[in-house]
Task: inverse folding
């Protein structure tokens, strides 16, 4: 630990005045302290005193060492930390008229406030409540309805059923999972009746367009290609079979059917190519508009919002002719997302993995790329291996803690499968767009996408069949994760 602090102190002295820091470092320190405040605040509220005391002691030790560098660092960290704790405390305050305080049987009135989740045997509605048993209420409720009829976003409903708190299902805390969506109550087996008014907004049109988009995918492709293409373009996993999903997880390739920074990057590349005839500023405006529409279209999940924020910041930096600092945009994305909803950091595993994987690409990739110089560059083999290992280095503890499995074939599977991903997305997208005005062009583009997806699925199944493709690891715990990150951080800082 002392070596790390001494190294940081030496680097700061070399590059800047002893009593001054670059603004970028100030921002990153504040963002990190804010995230730490949320994390520590949750440990305190959950009563996990052992972890809290250990980490607070570690933080005080580091703060005292940094104080020798510059008192402003300590003040900045303290303010960011207290801001994070305060933001979490404010989030945990539940309004007096919150619908979760009216548990029991009764009639609920509310409007569908999120995209409708249609399953094979039921439909899940996120409802913004405004009346319960004739009392004015607020807050969200998750409602499980019959498969038919299916109501749409914005529809206002009369719901009859029993309002209860989410259960713990086996070892899965469903209440904690829903908490990140600010949902504190559910109604199972609800009887639903549509009221005679609807809340209209732009999202009504967006979700209808997405539904039409998914319908056209199902008309062009047969299963399992329908679900696969919907996952590639829209990040929707509902149509992917359990068998294929398991193989994606085994091979460490589940990220390709979840909207992430890669999808956003591909979108920017495609849009920039389509509007290449425009000037730089107009092209940036078009790209930003497409990113916003795309984020809304795929449901605005945590990972895609983070990726979109980074993409927009980069495009704006290009517009104003400034250098794009990936580190600042990454931590700024995490800061603003958790400022809006601090439960994302605590309960959204997708956000945690996406953030740490991106950190791996930024900080680990430059350090290990020298070990793969002998790999061939064609089809992006060298780049795929470097990116896969870099992302896994920092994401590994979260994967082990949450899934208790480790894919041993992930690096190799990524090398062979990832190079086909851009072509599959591109031809699939154009097959759908062509379908609006030319069946012939749609069929040609769709056939090419079908061949590419067929090869990708074959490779996924092949690697999943290999012996020891994935092994169970149920002994990894929180303390081992702390030790792991300590040594990784030491290695990164030493080699910066």
Result:
């Amino acid at each position: 630990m002392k070596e790390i602090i001494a190294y940081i102190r030496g680097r700061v002295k070399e590059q800047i005045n002893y009593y001054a820091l670059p603004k970028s470092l100030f921002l990153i320190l504040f963002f990190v302290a804010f995230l730490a405040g949320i994390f520590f605040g949750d440990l305190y509220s959950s009563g996990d005193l052992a972890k809290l005391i250990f980490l607070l002691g570690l933080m005080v030790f580091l703060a005292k060492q940094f104080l020798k560098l510059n008192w402003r660092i300590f003040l900045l960290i303290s303010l960011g930390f207290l801001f994070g704790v305060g933001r979490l405390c404010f989030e945990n305050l539940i309004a007096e008229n919150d619908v979760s305080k009216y548990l029991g049987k009764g009639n609920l009135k509310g409007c569908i406030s999120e995209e409708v989740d249609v399953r094979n045997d039921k439909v899940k509605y996120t409802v913004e409540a405004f009346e319960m048993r004739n009392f004015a209420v607020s807050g969200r409720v998750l409602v499980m309805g019959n498969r038919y009829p299916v109501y749409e976003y914005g529809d206002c409903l009369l719901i009859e059923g029993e309002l209860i708190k989410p259960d713990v299902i086996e070892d899965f805390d469903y209440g904690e999972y829903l908490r990140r969506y600010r949902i504190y109550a559910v109604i199972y087996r609800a009887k639903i009746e549509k009221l005679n008014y609807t809340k209209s907004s732009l999202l009504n049109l967006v979700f209808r367009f997405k539904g039409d988009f998914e319908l056209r995918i199902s008309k062009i492709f047969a299963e399992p290609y329908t679900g696969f293409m919907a996952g590639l373009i829209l990040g929707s996993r509902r149509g992917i079979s359990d068998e294929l999903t398991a193989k994606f997880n085994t091979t460490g390739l589940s990220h390709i059917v979840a909207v992430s920074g890669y999808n956003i990057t591909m979108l920017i590349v495609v849009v920039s190519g389509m509007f290449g005839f425009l000037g730089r500023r107009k092209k940036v405006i078009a790209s930003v508009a497409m990113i916003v529409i795309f984020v809304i279209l795929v449901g605005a999940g945590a990972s895609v919002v983070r990726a979109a924020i980074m993409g927009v910041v980069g495009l704006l930096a290009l517009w104003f002719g400034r250098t794009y600092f990936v580190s600042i945009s990454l931590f700024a994305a995490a800061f603003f997302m958790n400022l809006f909803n601090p439960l994302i950091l605590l309960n959204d595993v997708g956000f945690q993995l996406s953030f740490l994987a991106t950190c791996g690409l930024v900080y680990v990739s430059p350090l290990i790329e020298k070990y793969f110089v002998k790999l061939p560059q064609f089809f992006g083999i060298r780049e795929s291996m470097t990116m896969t290992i870099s992302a896994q280095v920092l994401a590994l503890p979260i994967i082990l803690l949450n899934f208790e499995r480790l894919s041993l074939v992930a690096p190799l599977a990524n090398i062979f499968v990832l190079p086909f991903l851009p072509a599959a997305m591109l031809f699939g997208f154009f097959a759908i767009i062509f379908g609006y005005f030319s069946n012939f062009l749609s069929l040609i583009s769709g056939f090419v996408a079908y061949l590419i997806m067929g090869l990708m699925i074959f490779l996924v199944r092949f690697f999943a069949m290999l012996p020891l493709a994935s092994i169970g690891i149920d002994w990894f715990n929180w303390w081992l994760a702390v030790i792991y990150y300590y040594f990784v951080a030491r290695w990164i800082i030493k080699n910066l």
In short: The chain has a mean pLDDT of 77. Residues 2-92 form one domain.
